Amino acid sequence: MFSVFRFKAKIALVAITLTLVTFIGSGFLVNNQLKSGERYRSFINSDDRGTIMLARISDKLNALLYASHLLIDQANSPFVGEVVTRFQKDMRGTRDIFAEAARVDPRLVSTLDPLLGRYGTFEQQLNSLLIALDKGDIAKMRQIAQASDQDGVHLAIDIGAITGRRITHVESASNQLAHDVNVSVRNCVIGLVLIQILILFATLLMSQKTIVSPLLRVRDRMLGIAEGRLDESIPCLERGDEVGDMAKALSTIQGGVATSKGSGCRAGCRAGSCCQGEGRKRGACCEGA
Predict the structure, then answer these.
(1) 78 by DSSP, 3-state: which?
(2) Residue 68: left if φ>0, alpha if ψ -120 to 50, beta else—which one?
(3) What fold does the segment set 2-202 form as a domain?
(4) CATH code 1.20.1420 region(s) in the chain
(5) pTM over 0.70
(6) How many helices (H) and strands (E) does the chain have?
(7) Which residues 6+ apart lie within 8 Å of 33 measured at CB?
(8) What is the pLDDT of residues 115-127, one digit of tens each?
(9) Are residues 152 and 65 in contact, defined by beta-carbon separation less than 8 angstroms?
(10) Using CA atoms, how far apart are residues 53 and 42, in angstroms rounded to an integer?
(11) What are phi and psi of 77, to 5 degrees?
């Protein structure tokens, strides 16, 4: 009875272990997905948005270069005030984007500081352009625009090159992030499957030792009884499970077969003795005659 309880306890332990492994593996997968989401959001908030900010700075510089020539062309136009307002807004917006890019991705600070200094020089030239516009000095405006074009174009080209390198970096980083996530999930699934396979393999070994091997021993003994070998012992009689029941039944069968065989032998012996006695009697009668 104790062996039955022990075997059932082992089976229950295997089931509980498989359930726990499944839950732990599922929890690890969920945790891995959450961490992957956090890494992706961090990547979006820094690398991706930082690159977008650099692209916006390039757009603003191109807009300022275009607007500086528009100011010269419309210096005497009644709509020049709108152009000036837009021009000043773009200058402030460009400086704000520099600050936003440094805040979004602090790694850009070392790159943006020299660019921001060059933009300060470019911004001073644009302010001088507005002063010349207020004075109506078109010649001075053209002279300032010529210098600002050179500085502004070079600044836009340099920022565009940095943006291009950042785009390449972002693409590579995003691919690496996706690869790391796939590898992590794959390793988790493989590990979970391997652990379950090991548990099932251990269960099979336990079943082999606890049930299959004893059943084979009882079967071999049953074949031995069928072949007439009645003097061997019955295995697994002490077990309290189904294997023990089969062994006890086989012991009963062996005892019955042995008893029947013994009774048959004794009956044969008695029959032989009677025949011998009758033979002797017939011999005596013949001699008397």
Answers:
(1) coil
(2) alpha
(3) A middle domain of Talin 1 (1.20.1420)
(4) 2-202
(5) no
(6) 7, 0
(7) 185
(8) 999 999 999 999 9
(9) yes
(10) 16
(11) -85, 145
